[in-house]
Write a structure and sequence with these properties.
This protein has 1 helix and 12 strands; from the N terminus they run αββββββββββββ. It is an alpha+beta fold. The chain folds into 2 domains: 35 residues; 166 residues, lipopolysaccharide transport protein A fold (Sandwich).
């Protein structure tokens, strides 16, 4: 009986060891697949035009995709430029976004842009920040770092922390306003160029849309 028990324990121990090794190999294989690049493209330029929906032109020096990851994503390590249009004619530019780096999480339809992020709207508003998120599913744009909005041809400058907006940049606000500057533009006698001469810092307040 003792001999049989020793043999049985030896068999069970071997089975556990084999199962553990197999499980480790499976985990290693899974990790390798997740880290495997499945898409690669250089100097990519994509124009998407869909009837009845907003069109866009997407340009990037480098795209790397990881579609086998637990959370599939596409990475743009050399920056992006996205131009959106008001219709599918590709003639009326709505906004232009540029950034030094971007990543797109496919399942969540979430974009993250980082490094010198600039969004220029056709109505004259420009957003400057170092990090910006765009949730394509909810249509929300937001940032958790300091951001700056410039509008009215540079005369109104808003600075704050924690930026939130809709996709149209019509309903936007800061979670914490840090200040507002109004720049008066005056003509110099010896030049036709406008010269910024006066800065007035107003009390922190929630920004409002410029009057037409």
């Amino acid at each position: 009986m003792t001999r049989y028990a020793q043999v049985a324990l030896s068999v069970v121990g071997s089975a556990i060891l084999l199962f553990s090794c197999s499980e480790q190999r499976a985990e290693a294989s899974s990790s390798a697949e997740e880290a495997m690049m499945t898409e690669y493209s250089e100097d990519l330029s994509i124009i998407n035009s869909q009837n009845g929906r907003r069109s866009y032109h997407f340009v990037t020096p480098l795209l790397e995709g990881y579609t086998l990851a637990r959370e599939p994503y596409r990475e743009f390590r050399k920056g992006i430029k996205i131009t959106t249009y008001q219709d599918d004619s590709l003639s009326s530019v709505d906004a232009v976004l540029t950034a030094n780096y971007a990543i797109y999480y496919e399942n969540r339809e979430l974009w993250e842009a980082k490094g010198n992020v600039v969004v220029e709207k056709s109505d004259g508003k420009t957003l400057y920040t170092q990090q910006l998120f765009w949730n394509a599913r909810t249509g929300k744009i937001y940032s958790n770092v300091d951001s700056k909005i410039v509008q009215n041809n540079g005369r109104d400058v808003f600075i704050g922390e924690g930026f939130e907006s809709d996709e149209e940049f019509k309903d936007w606000r800061f979670r914490r306003m840090k200040g507002r500057m109004e720049v008066e533009m005056k003509q110099r006698a010896d030049s036709t160029a406008a010269d910024s001469t006066t800065l007035r810092r107003g009390a922190a307040q929630r920004p409002s849309e410029p009057k037409n």
